[in-house]
Amino acid sequence: MSRIVTVAAAQLGAIQKDDSRQAVVRRMIDLMDEAKRQGADLVVYPELALTTFFPRWYHEDRAEADHWFEREMPNAATGSLFARAREHGMAMSFGFAEITPEGRHFNTSILVERDGTITGRYRKVHLPGHDEHDPERTHQHLEKRYFEPGDLGFPAWRMLGGVVGMCICNDRRWPETWRVLGLQGVELVVLGFNTPSVNSQKGAEGLEKRMFHHKLSLQAGAYQNSTWVVAVAKAGTEDGHHLMGGTCIVSPDGEIVAEIAHEDDGIVVHPCDLDATIFGKETIFDFKRHRRIEHYGPITAQAGVITPK
Ligand code: CDT
Questions:
Q1: What positions does the domain CN hydrolase occupy (predicted)?
Q2: Based on CB atoms within 10 Å of each CB, which residue in 119, 191, 197, 270 is the most buried?
């Protein structure tokens, strides 16, 4: 039986501070309809898909940012998105800011089955940036102020005939993310990102270098774990702040097989053959045969560097 999952990477262009969630959801539905026309089984949207990338704004009182968070999912703003996905029989994944009934704040993404059931929930583990206003930076990146680190680890789920995992944006830069997913036999990893095109602490590091690091991370993660990767940008200029694009689909060989070259709303679709992951998993990256866990202790025993005496 064929295990081809046709995936649409659905990039969103800029979302301004004043854009309503309803307006964004209408854009997401347009992309979903196009994904359906192109035969997609799964549509993947970016990190924090429903709003502008609000962690760039500092609030002395952090509760002032709570209006960017969703208290339930689906909700009044996203109900029509879930309904359209069910109508199309299409699975989907998107990111949003989550506030739990206990008042905890997470940068979250979900996996939704073709029938609208939420199968998977992931809460971003590697939060970048800082938690206080930093006047030294050209722009703020306050994820550490508004979110707590995810408490669910890096789970994977059986879905669409394969094993699917998620991570979010900065997580893609960390090999630990990929290997924990790889150790669950993941065959498809979906992730969204909002990446400013300039390093706020190093102006010389611009779009070209940022794009290089982005693709380097995805391609290494895909190859070293023999998995498909679908990475979806929120791109363009949001309230004067530029986010790079770079939406792409990477094969288990680590090759980019499809990408979007602009910074607007748009999709790119690719038939991902999950059986293409088998060769790598059974040969060079057959973890059971080749991993030497007796030497990997420091990876979980320490966070920072301990140099030799
Ligand atoms: N959203 C997100 O995680 N962005 C980061 C920016 C890093 S610079 C603080 C990223 O890894 O692209």
A1: 5-276
A2: 191
